Amino acid sequence: IRCCFAMCVGFLEMGECVGFSASCPPTQPLPSFSRQVIAKRLPPDQLLSLLLTMLEGLADPDRNCSRAATVMINSLLKERGAVLLEKVPEILAVVHAKLQEVDQEHVWKAAQQAVYILASQHRVVVVSSLLNSPLPLDSCTCALWRALAPDPTLASQVLELLLEKINRDVPYKENKSFLRGSTSERVATFLPLSATCALHELMSVPESGPAVVGLYAELFVTLLLRVSCTVGVQLPKGLLSKERKTLGRGQPPRTLDP
User: How far is 68 from 13, CA to CA, in rounded Å?
Assistant: First the structure.
């Protein structure tokens, strides 16, 4: 059912008008009223179900079905994304899962576009959800962060949120040992560490240049203080073991050190 529906939408998007009327010449694409009507008129209780089904369709082996699912996802999010605030974490989790299943470029671009649309409507929730991603960041989460960088306005807003997270939370906690003569150990806190990794991903996208320049002073001061606060600070034991396992599997290393 999903595949047939996606193919129908795809044909409507890609088909050409042939001999309908003088106002619709053969060289023009068929107006995409169908997806607009579905996105606007779909009952609220069916919206999330259809959206999740379309997200599943991103990984469809038939490329036409995958592209058609992309069209519907974009339409649903643009028209009705504003009412999906409470479902943003669930949607992001599904998008991340789809990226882990496939490595096709068009699927990754579609997923990034979906996250961008969501972030333009619910940037605080999207940023908070992505900040809760496990560290070190996997390639899928990195791609989702980078999706927020090309738009200068959104990138500036996201950078400001990340700077706020870094500056507001304590950079480390001291674990005191009860053994006589032993010194306390400073261990990095999760949220500032995650926000720092997110800054790295955003700023690695060339299109983020205007946003970075606009916040250059704030970024420079915050990152300089961040480096000074992390000298001699240890990673949480759980994160350190994960980083070692990643290196052991031969995956590209993503260091969490400043």
Answer: 8
